[in-house]
Fold these 3 entries.
Entry 1:
Amino acid sequence: MPTIFTRIAKGEIPSYKVAENEDFYAFLDIAPLVKGHTLVIPKNVEDDYIFHLDDKTYLGLCAFAKKVAAAVQAAVPCKRVGVCVLGLEVPHTHIHLIPLQQESDVDFRREKLKLSPEEFQSIADSILAEYEKL
């Protein structure tokens, strides 16, 4: 059975897409730590552990995430974009890109933001516009 992230990448479940290419997909986390919190996934590999990926997929995912992070930083006011790979909550490799003002912005124990669909869409549109400029 496909993971929820595979279903999102295939368009079976709606998401706030911020970037996509043939092999990878990036979308806003629906339970964000901060505005602009983005998830980056491989589209065609469902392994739940990033270090199980073959080298081509791993390097491609990292390169794609780097470009998405540049778009996030251009679209969302922040000092930098933090990177976190946990992989325990969804059994599909994914990278968290988190706009940072301070290190505590990466505390996954804190209460998640509640944004309206309009806020999510506005953020996604801003990041996508920056991604398309790169």
Entry 2:
Amino acid sequence: MLILSRKLNEKICIGEDISVTIIEIHGEQVKIGVEAPKHVKVFRQEVLNAVQRENQAAAASSAAFDSLAELLT
């Protein structure tokens, strides 16, 4: 993991088309802005984890339903 220090209004560039800007610093909270092409998906980690858990639960539920349907036919 690369660790960088930035101050207010400073940027971090990722490749040629993604940048992260420090927008606001308030106590222990930092607001950042992400500029990226529309095809690049940007998620907060906790949101991505929740979506992945829901997808796994739905897939498991669907598999259990399919197994039950096979037993009943």
Entry 3:
Amino acid sequence: MKHEKFHYASLDEVKQKAAELGVSIPFSDNLKLLGESLTVDGHEFANRLAIQPMEGCDGKSNGAPDELTIRRYLRFAKSGAALLWFEATAITPEARANPRQAMLTEENLDDFKRLISDVKETCQRENGFTPVIIMQATHSGRYSKPEGKPAPIIAYNNPIFEKDNPISADRIITDDRLKELEELYAKSARLAELAGFDGVDVKACHRYLMSELLSAYNRPGEYGGSFENRTRLLRNSVQAVKAAVSSNMIVTSRMNIYDGFPRPYGFGAKDDGSVTPDMAEPIELVRILHEELGLNLLDFTIGNPYFNPHVNRPYDMGPYVPNEHPLEGVARMCACITEVASKFPKLSVVSSGNSYLRQFSPYMAAGMIESGHAALIGYGREAFAYPEFANDILKKGALDPKKCCIACGKCTELMRAGSKAGCVVRDGAVYMDLYKKDVLKK
């Protein structure tokens, strides 16, 4: 079995293991690159570090931020990261992944205004700059649970997931409803601008509805089959969002460029029944989004955290033991991002998959920037565990291994159990009791 837990005492040991595995991970010791500023669409990023959208599942029933939501984002505000990518925010009640998922509406707009204002003021006071904050607009699709129980809305039945128990046909979203979603994305974007967000993400990753449509090769109608049809909702929604907001707003997407499933059930794979990555369609989609629709910032990721989580978040402990070494997963993420990003030198790319490397991740971050294959470096679960990570990288030149995420998956276990998500290990005063009650006792 190739899989093993993280045990490296030095970067040289990481490099040696990668060499033994025959995989390539870019490393650079020029950490000063991470402190350089960047301007995209008129917005200045004070450095190259970003906090990826991490759901806390801790909002109010009406979608407004609650106590733990506010606590989390004020911690992020102090982190020193220049980009705060706000967590998945449902565009309509049916799209919520849990009863406490964020959802921005006219009724709770003032709650979001207060939070965004407080986050910006806190970051300015603590770090001397105002962060760029992007809201992730989402439809949870097959993972919708607005009342706390599964209420899937799917693009098509996928035998990899459903096996011999397909979801009923009435849960397959119609073309007419998909057309309606375009305006719902636009409405969410308008509200996001009013709330003080600097940009909006039309979420197309991790097998939520927009992402699932990209692999709807066998779906009939206007949203399935051809590449043009499978990308229709994303393209149209981006255009609707751009028309709905001012030119000051960044319009972007956190998007899957590889699902990790064979065609016709996975995007970004070779058409030979394997799961070998093939970036031809992702490259064409990025070309359209960037060169035709004017998106100058994109956040790339891969895999499905519900079904093959080792692909997008290599781990020490998880729901199964993958038949690959975690460093192979890190290298795959880098390779996919590099292949796509290299085609678009004027595109600012946010990279993913950095947290597994713990204290050695800044060297991969610098390597991705030095190679020109990322402009910003995204950290996800690391921010739950170690919210001050950015300042430690920028000011101390190192991460404290005793504070780093240990890739144990407990934050995800909380989410899957219907609880509120956070770091059980590093933020145990808040989340250990929740873990005992909602995970261990079930």
